[in-house]
Design goal:
globular, 8-stranded antiparallel sheet, 202 residues, Jelly Rolls, 7-stranded antiparallel sheet, 4% helix, mainly beta
């Protein structure tokens, strides 16, 4: 149980990553991914990378610069421009719905204007899911200068689009619905220089 704990990615740039195991019975037609990050990086970095053998950027949360997030589904992306962080924890949730192609992005409990992405697409179920690196091939192909350095916590993946109430609940660390990946019952494997530590503050 990683309650009130964080992954600390200690080096910059880094070849370290964390592999997450999720039990996906079928391909995803809807999903929500949420996580909390704390970093002083200004270079591009990957937060959440979900690759299949057919598509390395099947789901990707990527931060190319401090005032921008990119959300990929099936190799295509939309950009959400954000205020440059005040060197504090940032909580992001991104959700996607195949039937409408609507992509939602929430930062620190607030929604950004919705965008359109990959309507009718289906996300493959046999996936390599990594924190800390951006995959250019299934489970590998890393560019060290896209690596994450800093602290990550509260990582979740659901096979549904969360309601606005649940998006806010995720930001506030309140009770959440059962998830494919849940921080409090995460099945993970650390590869390289990543340390699990207590969160320094709430």
């Amino acid at each position: 149980d990683l309650y009130r704990k964080v992954f600390v990615f200690r080096k910059d740039p880094s070849d370290a990553f964390v592999v997450l195991q999720a039990q996906l019975e079928q391909p995803l037609r809807n999903f929500t991914v949420c996580l909390r990050s704390y970093t002083d990086l200004s270079r591009p970095h990957s937060l959440f990378s979900y690759a299949t053998k057919a598509q390395d950027n099947e789901i990707l949360l990527f931060k190319p610069k401090p005032e921008e997030y990119r959300f990929y589904v099936g190799g295509k992306f939309v950009t959400f421009r954000v205020p440059e962080g005040r060197r504090d924890w940032e909580h992001v949730c991104a959700s996607w719905e195949s039937s409408t192609g609507i992509a939602e992005f929430w930062l620190n409990g607030k929604p950004w204007p919705r965008k359109g992405l990959q309507r009718g697409y289906t996300v493959g179920a046999t996936a390599a899911i990594l924190l800390g690196q951006e995959q250019d091939s299934f489970g590998g192909g890393f560019d060290l200068y896209n690596s994450f350095s800093g602290e990550l916590t509260d990582v979740y993946l659901w096979d549904t689009g969360l309601s606005p109430e649940k998006m806010r609940a995720a930001f506030l660390s309140l009770r959440l619905p059962p998830a494919l990946l849940a921080w409090n019952s995460l099945s993970y494997e650390i590869k390289g220089d990543v340390v699990v530590k207590p969160r320094l503050r709430e």
